[in-house]
Design brief:
By secondary structure, the chain is of the alpha+beta class. The protein is built from 9 helices and 22 strands.
Length: about 350
Amino acid sequence: MSVDIAITSTARNLDVAFQLDSKESLAIVGPNASGKSSVLLGIAGLLTPDFGHIVLNDSTVFSAGAAHPSVNVPVHKRGVSMLVQRPLLFPHMSVRQNVEFGPRSLGVGRAEARSRAMQWLERVGIAHLADRHSNELSGGQSQRVALARALAVEPKLLLLDEPMAALDAEAVPAMRVLLAHVAKERPTILVTHDVLDAISLSTRTLVIEGGRVTDEGPTERVLLQPRTSFGARLGGLNVVRGLVEASDCIVLAGGQKVYGRAQAELQAGQESIAVFSPGSVLITRDEVQASARNSFDARVDAIDQREGRCRISAGGFLVDITLGALVELGIAPGSNVHLLVKAMEVALHPA
């Protein structure tokens, strides 16, 4: 199953193109209102783009524009299933009947639809709830029913739009494991804000900002070696932008130099970004003599404590230290601090 998508929607400020092959699963990440869900709606046929094409396994399901014949295959004939944040189960039906509904609506016989429903309910671990109604289910159980219903129609492509956003924290790990198994069996496109979802469920990640693709590649590379500010924040990393002065140095807008290791060939004057982890930053109250080539003066904006560690936001940078170190240094919001980072901890990428 191959996926080839290029769609433009003026009303949604969307202009996106990407491809996906049968062995890949794709995570789409980006800020709120960046166009992530609109991409899924377009693929599913619930949003009609102004121009472009959507080709699923060499079959064109949408085409519009001067260079393309007009094609717009109905939603139910695209071979696509979509799972959204809310299960949207039919309240007047039992669990089994909810799952049977998809195959039956496609013309599958009653016996075959029931067989498929029970097979998928077994796969998602809730066959014992087949005769219950949706108002008797927990959030996690309801989302499993919705997943079984989406898969019972044997879709060529599975779309997941924040499928765990409405789940209780206790239900998320089990659902993530289940979706990971499903994503290995068929092409899957996932919209998420959760870095763990992207890592667990996708082989590739697409970053969309302002309706445009700003980064794309293997998930680990996009999250650990991001090329955009959003990708860096999502991965919990620091990023600064500047112009290349030398193969190991960029110059920021204010004239400060940042030294690091080039991850690709860099040309003098080229726009580039420097990326480093919060854990690689040494924070002090006083200037110290150190071997680190990079230093920044900053004021502490906020401190977030989590599980015995503290994340400090200072001058646009993130710094991770222990609670004990925070107390010892006497750092608080408003404190003036010095940040030191070794060049070997900084990755330089073309912007």
